[in-house]
Design a protein that fits this description.
- This protein is an all-alpha fold.
- 65% of the residues lie in helices and 0% in strands.
- It is globular and about 70 Å long.
- The longest helix is centred in the N-terminal third of the chain and has 35 residues.
- The two termini are 40 Å apart.
- It folds into two domains: 586 residues, Cytochrome C Oxidase, Chain A (Up-down Bundle), CATH 1.20.210.10; 35 residues, no CATH class.
- The structure holds protoporphyrin IX containing FE (HEM) and copper (II) ion.
- Copper (II) ion (CU) binds next to helix 9.
- The site of copper (II) ion has 5 residues, from helix 9.
Length: 638
């Protein structure tokens, strides 16, 4: 506590920086923690937009024969809802955690390429705006569903610029994802603290690594498809034009070969978070660590072999359908392995029902339901009934909302004290959880039933005599409960970040390295790079060797203690002095990443005006790259 107080006292003595300087420092920042905060705040804003879109959808569907929105608007709403949730909400919240937590967990001072990291964020922002460009400019948003089936993406079937924005926006977002993923692969492989072997890496770091590999392998696939759509629409090529002899199935294969790994990109970070939260809040090491890690790796590989389960009803034939049935059922096994290990971790632990722990438990509950309904559509005859009904909408939300989003919330509460230095309000956190838990089951459970009795997905209204009105009303009420829970969450976060109690370095009695340094961490994270002797280095530091790791006993004579004292807080690798006085060399801020990113955004936006106009954006991009290359890494190198 004392260190934090001292730091804040010192900050109060300093003259208040001017608002413009503050904004400039965020624009030019290359600090992974600040970039993480930028990602988190931007993603939460986009999440809010997608949530409002969902609420309009739910209002429209609450009653039969409703005329709140017209069919075309409805198509744009569900398409943009899905795209925004997936690419601008859930994925970037995951990336925010990569940034905020991974370098701290591995004992590094930053990511491998700090400026590339800034570029990833700014390109993400340009891509997000571009994807919403149809709405911003009034030219019309994407309207063919998030998986954009051919022929619907071809000019004669979808007029307007919506699907052009779709391909441009996703192409730009792909650049951001690829750059970010390569950065984290290199960071995790090269920058771990001494002693942190791969099998001592925290499970969240492992899931980040696997997700990053999926990103760099899956995005090239969709990139090809997006360029083909763009060429079909803008230059008259015929990749997906059935009148010219193309097979519409080509797009489905390309999309789902990307799309299925993509759903693991959405869920793996949450699996990693839950594997951190459960052991810490049960005060026990993760049970079956190697199984949790290997099941993640197996999911990463097997995720490539199941894509045609999205195409059981298109007539691929019995052999293809059988193969994909088997692979899809098999992939449930590694998922189940994780669930058993989490439960075994809690078994006999001293569980604290804090807000992050409640979210982790809620995650397990929802993810099991979503996983089980998923296995039901692994069977082609069952899937033939479920395909394109609300049963699918129920399934995908149990996995993506009940799984990914609830898991990410667990992480937000768990690391909030580390990132802000302050504690959130526990009662409000619990209220958020219970409202959200109730709301999500009320919203999504009835969709299973209304789907099985025949309500198709993607319909803007339905007749009163269909008998679907009651279920839909329940879903709508649930959705508004979710909306209310989100407002409580926002209030808690904003208020606590400013006025919450000081959290101290280690409010949870954490296991991993981020809990050994001050909250919020200083710019350079670790005053001294730690040496790691086991899977729970922070526990070693506090309690001595835990002895649960074989190599630990062989290689160490107990935890290092020299120079680690951090005032009354006890053991730690932190210090409150600035980088210079410690002789630590940090990279300088740079405005080139945002210029390069603007080049991408402008090139995309002007493509809509006319393909050749993009040259202006490309020029900015290239000049930006030159400026970047010519700039010295830090001032000392002049
Ligand atoms: C905040 C609570 C949410 C509500 C109330 C909600 C509601 C809905 C509804 C009613 C639909 C069906 C629209 C239709 O088929 O006509 C839908 C579709 C969809 N939602 Fe959500 N949703 C929520 C959160 C999420 C999240 C977090 C994700 C993903 C991360 C997501 C991804 C999708 C996808 C992929 C579709 C399918 C869109 C399509 O058919 O192309 N939703 N949502
Ligand atoms: Cu799939």
């Amino acid at each position: 506590m004392a260190t934090v107080d001292k730091a804040i006292d010192r900050a109060l003595e300093r003259p208040k920086p001017k608002a413009l300087d503050v904004i400039w420092s965020w624009i030019t920042t290359v600090d992974h923690k600040r970039i993480g905060i930028l990602y988190m705040v931007t993603a939460i804003i986009f999440f809010l937009v997608a949530g409002v879109e969902a609420l309009i959808i739910r209002l429209q569907l609450a009653r039969a024969d409703s005329t709140l929105v017209d069919p075309e608007t409805y198509n744009q709403l569900f398409t943009m809802h899905a795209l925004t949730m997936i690419f601008l909400g859930v994925m970037p919240i995951g990336v925010a955690f990569f940034n905020l937590i991974v370098p701290l967990m591995i004992g590094a001072r930053d990511v491998a390429f700090p400026r590339l990291n800034a570029l990833s964020y700014w390109v993400f922002l340009s891509g997000g705006l571009l994807l919403n460009g149809g709405f911003i400019s009034g030219l019309g948003s994407p309207n063919s569903g998030w998986f954009a089936y051919a022929n619907l993406t071809e000019e004669p079937f979808t007029t307007g610029d919506g699907m052009t924005f779709y391909s441009l926006g996703l192409l730009v977002l792909g650049v951001s994802s690829m750059a970010g993923a390569f950065n984290f692969i290199v960071t995790i492989i090269n920058m771990r603290a001494p002693g942190m072997g791969l099998m001592r890496m925290p499970p969240f770091v492992w899931m980040t690594l696997i997700t990053s590999f999926l990103l760099v392998t899956a995005f090239p696939v969709i990139t090809v498809g997006l360029i083909q759509i763009l060429f079909d629409r803008s230059f008259g090529t015929n990749f997906f034009n059935t009148q010219a002899g193309a097979s519409p199935l080509l797009w489905q294969h390309i999309f789902w070969l990307f799309g299925h790994p993509e759903v693991y990109i959405l869920i793996l970070p949450a699996l990693g978070i839950v594997s951190e939260v459960i052991p810490t809040h049960s005060r026990k090491p993760l049970f079956g660590y190697p199984f949790v890690i290997f099941s993640g790796i197996v999911i990463g590989f097997m995720g490539w072999g199941v894509w045609s389960h999205h195409m059981f009803t298109v007539g691929l034939g019995n052999i293809a359908n059988s193969v994909f049935t088997i692979t899809t059922m098999l992939i449930a096994i590694p998922t189940g392995v994780k669930i058993f290990n989490w439960i075994a971790t809690m078994w006999g632990g001293s569980i604290r029902f804090t807000t992050p722990m409640l979210f982790a438990l809620g995650f397990i509950f929802m993810f099991i339901i979503g996983g089980l309904s998923g296995v039901t559509h692994a069977s082609p005859p069952a899937d033939a009934q479920q395909q394109d009904t609300y049963y699918i909408v129920a399934h995908l939300h149990y996995v993506l909302f009940g799984g990914s989003v609830i898991g990410l919330f667990a992480g937000i509460y768990h690391w909030f004290p580390k990132v802000t230095g302050r504690m959130y309000n526990e009662n409000m956190g619990k209220l958020h959880f219970w409202l959200l838990f109730l709301g999500s089951n009320l919203t999504f459970f009835p969709m299973h039933i209304v789907g099985l009795v025949g309500m198709p997905r993607r319909i803007y209204t339905y007749p009163a005599d269909a008998g679907w009105e009651g279920y839909n009303m329940l879903s709508t009420v649930g959705a508004f409960l979710l909306g209310a829970s989100f407002l409580i969450f926002l209030h808690n976060m904003v208020r606590s970040a400013r006025k919450g109690e000081r959290a101290g370095n280690d409010p949870w009695d954490g296991r991993s390295l981020e809990w050994t340094i001050p909250s919020p961490p200083p710019e350079y994270n670790f005053a001294e790079i730690p040496t790691v002797y086991s899977r729970d280095p922070a526990w070693d530091l506090k309690y001595g060797p835990t002895g649960q790791d074989e190599t630990y006993r062989e290689t160490s004579n107990g935890p290092v203690s020299d120079g680690l004292s951090n005032g009354p807080e006890g053991a730690g690798y932190g210090s409150e002095t600035d980088a210079q006085s410690l002789g630590i060399h940090m990279p300088s801020p740079s405005y080139w990443p945002i210029i390069v990113a603007m080049g991408f955004g402008i090139a995309g936006a002007l493509f809509i005006v006319g393909p050749w106009f993009s040259a202006i954006g490309v020029t900015i991009l290239v000049l930006g790259l030159y400026g970047w290359a010519a700039e010295p890494v830090s001032k000392e190198e002049h």
